[in-house]
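Entry type: protein chain
Record version: 2
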Amino acid sequence: MKNLCGRSNRLRLRDSICYHESALDDHFERSRGASSVSAAVGINLIHTDRTHIKIMVEEGRDNVSVDPQSAEEWLLHAQGLVPVALQKAREVKGFQVRWKMIISKMEQIPPSLSDLSTHPFFAKNTLCIEQLQSVSNTLNEAIRFSELCLKEKYEGKLQMQSDLDSLSGKLDLNLKDFGSLIKTGVLSGSFAEPEAKFDTHVRELLARLQIGHLESKHKALDSLVEAMREDVKTVLGLIGRSNIAALVQLLTASSCTVREKAVSVICSIAESGSCENWLVLEGVLPPLIRLVESGSAVGREKATISLQRLSMSSEIARSIVGHGGVRPLIEVCRSGVSVAQAAAVGTLKNISVVPEVKQSLAEEGIIKVMISLLDCGTLLGAKEYAAECLQNLTLSNENLRRDVISDGGIKSLLGYLDGPLPQESAVGALRNLISLVSVDVLVSLGLIPRLVHVLKSGSLSAQIAAASAICQLCSSGDMKKLVGGNGCIPLLVKMLEAKTDGAREVAAQAISSLVSVSQNKREVKRDEKSVPSLVLLLDPSPQNAAKKYAVSCLVSLSSSKKCKKLMVSYGAIGYLKKLSEMDVPGAKKLLERLERGKLRSLLGRK
């Protein structure tokens, strides 16, 4: 039983039976101007196909005796409250500005109720009932406050102003929730098919993130996290832009727990790689950066992982810098061993790819932080990202190269290469730096044995980088002797059989440089796989970029009769004829040598 009107302004009810909500609207519209009721009017029964609402008016005051259960009942209940609340509000003389705003918002409720009630699945969704209950509570509150204002029986003017502001906010929320409920599509879910139950459940949870107060959103977030544990792929497939907007708003919730759960869901969305643009368009970067800066341990970790994934886009990486994200990320790098630290380094590594932000990174102290991670970090992932970040920073930027060198970066990079599986990033960074350092210093620091170690134990990309660095180093005969003497030639010959064109090309290039020294040439000759592998690299196809280096190597080896015989036996002449027509340097010269040798061999037999 709820009191809908005060004694001074009673609701006139005509003793008729209403079967449709339009009739009920007309009824309240006609009764809006009534100021009193002289006697008990009696009992009017309002029937619909599924409701039975008893409206009773007693002498001296107006009451609506209702016990609504279904969506239709709650709809009629809310529709009945609107004209009463509006009538009361219009009679209030005080707080005119606030009441005028409240009235304008209450006038928007009937169209929203109508939109909701005309939806085919209106009666089948609990969210509808919850929203109708919520707006009914708000309207009852409006009636109560209007009566207090009319009687001037409120505790204080400031308190009533605060209460009216709160009421206005609740009306805003009700109107927004009605719109969200219709737009989310959750009302259109299939309730009949068993296989659709999980999808329907998830859609309702996603809708609840956009509707109601923080506590209800918190509960929906809990359930959504559980649903993601059960079937994350399905959940991610049902998330739309409006759901992402709701999750982003929860990143700034007053509750730390809500923020943590919201960022956990957003982290999963970011890692899925399907909604990066929506996340950024809905403003996810500033709250993520704030969580990195001052969030809880869980919040910081998930936010940093999210930024790492998002920063793989150069455009988003620029935005992270623009929103002031570099300094908090660097602070996380300094904070110690954690998953967040590795993700922060990974994010900065991604950002360092963007040429125009490199100087900004350097000004924030990124170089010393990355070098420190190489020296003292315990997470292998963080060290690898640090080396890759230094590689990116020193690419085509001489000033930053000099900064890395002056801060002791070469020694740290070489120390990182001592690991069991050296990676390409550290070798690539060293390759960017060695042109600015004297050969003597590089030798004294132990560069060459590290390059040999990489050729022997590193990944293929690391081996390619090491061979490329050897090409850079071998500018003098003495350096070529030193490199060859450290055992790299058999490893380079082995690389000639690699599966990738890039690896074969750089190996052939390094060998072609080294064989200009006689001791290295002898070692190449001794390797039984060298000539066959080099002949195969004479393939004239455009994809084979190693052919010019293979020709150069074979020209150097052609002074040996044994090597020439091997070249001929493996079909070098056929390749060289085609390469001569293509004007590949040295091909014609080598072809002539091999043909002369073949002719002499035939004449010698005769």
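Comment: Residues 1-66 have pLDDT under 50 and may be disordered.
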